[in-house]
Amino acid sequence: MNVTLDGETVVKLQPVFGYLHRNHEKIAEGNSWLAAVPYTDRLDYICPLTNNWAYTLAVETLAGLEVPERAEYIRIITAELTRLQNHVAFMGFILADMGAWGSALMYAFREREKILDLFEALTGARMMCNYMRFGGCRCDLPSGWLESAGQLVEGFPAFLDEMEALLTGNEILLARLQGVAPLTPERAINGGLSGPILRAAGVDYDIRKVDNYGLYSRFKFRVPRGRVGDCYDRFMIRVLEARESVEILKQALVGIPDGPVVNPKAKQRGFRPPAGEAYGRIEGPKGELGFYLISDGSDRPYRFRVRPPSLINLTLLEELCLGTKIADVMVILGSIDIVLGEVDR
Amino acid sequence: MELLERAPVELKNAFLRVLGSLGVPEGMLAILSAVLIIGTVIGVFLGLFALMSVMERKILARVQNRYGPNRAGPFGLFQPVADGIKMLTKEDLVPRAADKVVHFLAPVVMMVPALLVLAILPYGRDMVPVELESGILFFFAVGAGTEVAIFMAGWASNNKYSVLGAMRAIAQMISYEIPLVISAVTAAMIAGSLSPSVIVAAQGGFAAGFLPHWFVTTPWGFTAALLFYIGALAESNRSPFDLPEGESELVAGHLTEYSGFKYATFFMAEYIGMFAICGMFVTLFLGGWQAPLPFLTVVPSWIWFFGKVCFVAFTMVWVRATLPRLRVDHLLAFAWKFLLPMSFAAFLSAACWHYAGRGPAAWFLSLVVVGIPYLVLGLSFTSRFSVSRRTYLFSE
């Protein structure tokens, strides 16, 4: 970021990105359809499983593949766990941006570690999961996984309460977050924002509700919305969303049916979807994560394009930061919640 | 126990007697006595600094459920030694564009006041290195020298982060110096002296046989102590007032261009300054070397003093582990709009307490004088930041 300051006030700000560019889209176009799945892990490396899902969803839309019910449940469970750990990590990160010396961050990571342990038990990797496949998931849940996930979900509201007791009433935190960089619903929509930032600005738009992808229509959950759209709302929306995720998880862990975890008709290696194009999108923890794919009928994508929420949410950064203090820039950047792996791809 | 109480002084006297019997001249002995005292005080505080640098990391780690340093020596206690060796052997970088003389002098200028102010603290019964009538005045006058050092460091580094950090430091330290001094004056006013020993002596004895007469137990004293504590946090640049080196936006503030032993000197001076101001806090409000309960008076007074200093330092680490950093405009608003009026209120309250006879009526009066401004200022201050809980909409 190039920041021009007048005293401590920001008068000009220019984000400079591209330092983490890894040529994700072009590499995916040169490889088989399946080979792109592990690359999607590395987009938003905090939440690999939602990235997997968005890509497989796009491919399934392209090829018209059905997903077995059990696989859909597993996808929802892993996606909501991903959302939980992303939001928890967000709470820690934004406090670290405010200079809270890592206490909140360490508490958050203690909880995140438990979720990562679940991911490791399921997929073999804590962060680079590479778990979802076209028409389902790579493997079934290991025995006892649902029980340990249930225990985690049971204990999670207590942790959120603990975090809130530490954070949400703190005067310094309120003074640092409230009234900082408010965003109107119109501006948020015009900026193309999505995810918690958009909802913090008061727009009721959650792709889980809008698209009803997966089996989300079966679950009862609420979508929180803010009224002011400042950093404090962005912070609180994530806390509330985490609580809703817990509700979804409670329902999903009870209701998960037996059955195959991958569509037996789906071919993974040498997969050739029919020629055409498709856009698959999900409500990722950071916003609308979409994959736009064009197939020419061959064994590799003709065009592979990612719509990364981090990048598009970042485009309003300068507007949000102008006129604020330099210390606020860190908090605003933190409240947007970006992952550079996804910004630069 | 009586022996232990006098141990540091007796040890010095015995040593000097031995030297005297060996034929060392009288004048020489006086100088040696002073050198011994200075050496002991500096040695003790350097030891405390070493201990604190490792304990701070360990306490922080425990708060954050980590282990902290535990490799060097038993429980990681030799960590300061390892740190010292690392610092000494590191390359001493001086930026090409820096003002080299000022850049070199800044850590020295930082260190001198930090050590000088140690001279006037009463470490125990009859244990004051320099018995100064205007000790409190000396403490704050000399202590203000650190501000010059920080600005020297920031300016001489010729680095944007350094200058920004130094500007913040100056703004912060000047703003917080005023409530700090005024709240210190309340204690001096009640004790009727600027001498630290007299202030400590005024806090001796126990009410109802167990309640110590420490100033912190009175309404004005409690307020002044809190104000002084906040001011002390800001003066020693500690979290949540660590803006000058706010690492999320300013790299390391005025310390950005310092490395090697110059950095270590800064670090050391900051910690010793912190201990000094904790010592002043203990002297002014926590009864100095006085024991907290009558039957504990058998424990040597200097143990009480250093115990209390360590406790106050511990609370500072605790605060650091808990709170996020303030923003610079909030910081200044807090100093000028809340701390300063409150310190005047404490000042007034102390006067009321004194003239109302220091009895139950005085208690009530001084409580009112402190309480009303607190409520008024507190409410007006917090409402500006709209602390009210917000509500959120939910759509099904």
Care to describe what's here?
The complex is a heterodimer of chains A (345) and B (396). In chain A, 51% of the residues lie in helices and 12% in strands. Chain A is mainly alpha-helical and 345 residues long. Chain A has a single domain (2-128, 143-260, 272-338), classed as Cytochrome-c3 Hydrogenase, chain B, CATH 1.10.645.10. In chain A, the strands form 3 sheets. A 3-stranded antiparallel β-sheet of chain A has the order 6-7-8. A two-stranded antiparallel ribbon of chain A has the order 1-2. Chain B has a two-stranded antiparallel sheet with strand order 1-2. Chain B is globular, with a radius of gyration of 23 Å. The chains are: A mainly alpha (345), B mainly alpha (396). The A-B interface holds A 5, 8, 95-103, 105-107, 110, 166, 170-176, 178-179, 202, 204, 209, 220, 222-228, 232-233, 236-237, 240, 325-330 and B 60, 63-66, 164, 168, 239-240, 242-243, 246-250, 320-330, 382, 385-387, 390-396.
Secondary structure elements and pairings:
The complex is a heterodimer of chains A (345) and B (396).
Chain A: E1 2-6, E2 9-14, H1 24-30, H2 36-41, H3 48-63, H4 69-97, H5 103-123, E3 132-133, E4 136-137, H6 145-167, H7 171-177, H8 185-190, H9 196-200, H10 207-210, E5 223-225, H11 231-255, E6 276-284, E7 287-295, E8 303-307, H12 309-314, H13 317-321, H14 326-336, H15 340-344
Chain B: H1 2-21, H2 26-63, H3 79-89, H4 100-116, H5 135-143, H6 145-157, H7 160-191, H8 196-202, E1 206-207, E2 211-212, H9 219-235, H10 247-250, H11 260-285, H12 301-322, H13 328-355, H14 360-384, E3 393-395
Antiparallel strand pairs in B: 1-2
Helix pairs in contact in B: 1-2, 2-11, 2-12, 3-11, 4-6, 4-11, 6-7, 7-8, 7-9, 7-13, 9-11, 9-13, 11-12, 13-14
